[in-house]
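Exercise 7. Given the components listed, write out the predicted structure of the assembled complex. Treat all entries as one system.
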Amino acid sequence: MAKTKVEKDQNGADVALAQPKGKPVKEAERFSAETYLNWYEIMLRIRRFEEKAGQLYGQQKIRGFCHLYIGQEAVAAGTISALQADDPIITAYRDHGMALARGISSNECMAELYGKATGCTKGKGGSMHFFSKEKKFFGGHGIVGAQIPLGAGLAFAEKYKGNANVVACFFGDGAARQGALHETFNMAMTWKLPVIFLCENNLYAMGTSVARSSNVIDLKKLGSAYDMPSYDVDGMSCEKVHDAIASAAEHCRSGKGPVFLEVETYRYKGHSMSDPAKYRTKEEVEEYKSKDPIETTLSTMLKKKFVTMAEVEAINQRIMEEVDECVKFAEESPYPDPSEIYTDNYMQQDYPFITD
Amino acid sequence: METRKIPFRQALREAMVEEMRREESVFLMGEEVAEYNGAYKVSQGMLEEFSERRVIDTPISELGFAGIGVGAAMNGLRPIIEFMTWNFAVLAFDQIVNSAAKMLSMSAGQINVPIVFRGPSASAGQLGAQHSQSFENWMANVPGLKVISVSNPYDAKGLLKSAIRDDDPVCFFESEVMYGDMGEVPEEEYLIPIGKANVTREGDAVTIVSYNKMMKIAHAAADELAKDGIHAEVIDLRTIRPLDVETLVNSVKKTNRMVILEEAWPYGSVNTEITFQLQKHAFDYLDAPIKRVTTTDTSIAYAPTLVQAFLPNVDKVIQAVKSSMYVS
Ligand SMILES: Cc1ncc(C[n+]2csc(CCOP(=O)(O)OP(=O)(O)O)c2C)c(N)n1
Ligand SMILES: [Mg+2]
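Answer.
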């Protein structure tokens, strides 16, 4: 079979891909004031929402496992601005950020953390299992790496149905060590599935650093091994994430198959609420905090005069109120009725459960 | 015998440490077992004593490291494979079921697999559908495996030591929510035999059978029932496979009634096997159908109301006992 001639870098990746089309344009000119405002608002919403969730966890209003996304917000913001609303998204248990960015309301998200019937999964899923079919947000998955083949499956369906949609499939650096990744990458490449595999490399899988989990610490090589176009992305920058996803999406939509993005990011908090994160230094955490995506975006907006300080204050105020409001909403919502344990187990409405 | 009170996690750790000191071929492998000192601190300090040669952190690759454990066992070592929880061991079931369980049989007795797969199982608060499952009955279905599920520090230590010394593959079930439980454990070495149930409370009105953390509910229910003059005998299965049918039959000969309490889905669970064995071996001694208290026949969910609806509790056990006694 004749191979199409594409330029490859040393990893076998398509070099042209990550570059924006046409002649280079300065960053801030490529993105409108509206885009910046949108990023800022998405990230601030996630940050404030999760800070509140953290407090509420301490008060035992939120139970179970709760994994915060704080620090990684630019990945969600840049993804959302680069994708179409119809493009499916799937991720792991660290899912609040992506869900909020996709437009699941703060009310529904907070109510879910409370386990209330008004939550985005009716109090059934909790923190780890947010879903919204309407928003094409396909979860919220608790078994590390399970969403990698699921994401490829979503893409298989898009292709099968003849849609132009592309799937964004997120997973962590720890998940990248699951065997399922290799099986899936192989098939996704072979079948040219329209899926962007995004590894959010926040350097740790619980207490295990990337370097301790493998000999291969340059994660994009995992994609290159299957000749999948694979790139590093600065995950602390909305602009860079947006660009990378936009080009990857274009590649997928044109029928060329999957793309692998290793997005370098950082979680400011422990793995979950119970992890004191003693395996990393204060300095390391501070270093990443100094590249805080919300701060950076704000300062770019101000420098470009996209926004005045008064307007920023107004946004901050509005987000604060939204978060206060969602807590009130969650507090006042009812728990699901105990009988709900029997709903949603089967589509068959009269399924004969064993009740002795 | 001198005893002291130690937490469950320490009892498990002592079992592993003692066996590793005793036998060079024993090693521990799993996620976060070494540098992080265990996700639930069961293996705290073990890296320091045994070094990274014998206390080994793995990537999140359950199928791979379970298989590596089986291979090592085929070639003369005695691995302890820790799963952060049994929910994640599902990824490794291929190696447990297709390799570990069948190796001796396939090789016509040439290759045995002396390995322990251990970790916590079942619910642990509001952890949702994927993090709350019990698998004792799944593993117990497989010929070639032995299955142990422990309820207190004393049993945990004695049975884990026996499991490590056993020449067959053993699946060993603990519980996150019991790791902090304190219990009397002897200073000196002891072993508890695999395959023997333990009568933890004597009584004559009904036999309540359970295992793992449901034992607490069994005892709490027995306490309540005693206030009404109903004296339940309580049996901790300890080993799920092989099942100690004799102890169960002997108890029913005395009480003539049985309630099985299990944090597991009802279909094809441990209680269904017990019920079959009892109707076969103690039919004439039963004064009422055997009752069971299980989870609902559904996935568990996050909300507290749904967790409560899903799980067994003391009231449900008392009701089952009373209904088996035809009182209300
Ligand atoms: C199959 C499986 N094994 C182990 C776990 C326990 N666990 C939950 S999150 C996690 C670390 C995952 O790290 P990573 O993929 O880097 O994602 P991050 O938490 O950094 O977002 C582990 C080991 C699990 N949920 N599923
Ligand atoms: Mg990580």
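Discussion: The longest strand of chain A covers residues 195-201. Strands of chain A lie at 89-92, 137-141, 167-172, 195-201, 204-205, 208-209, 230-234, 259-264.
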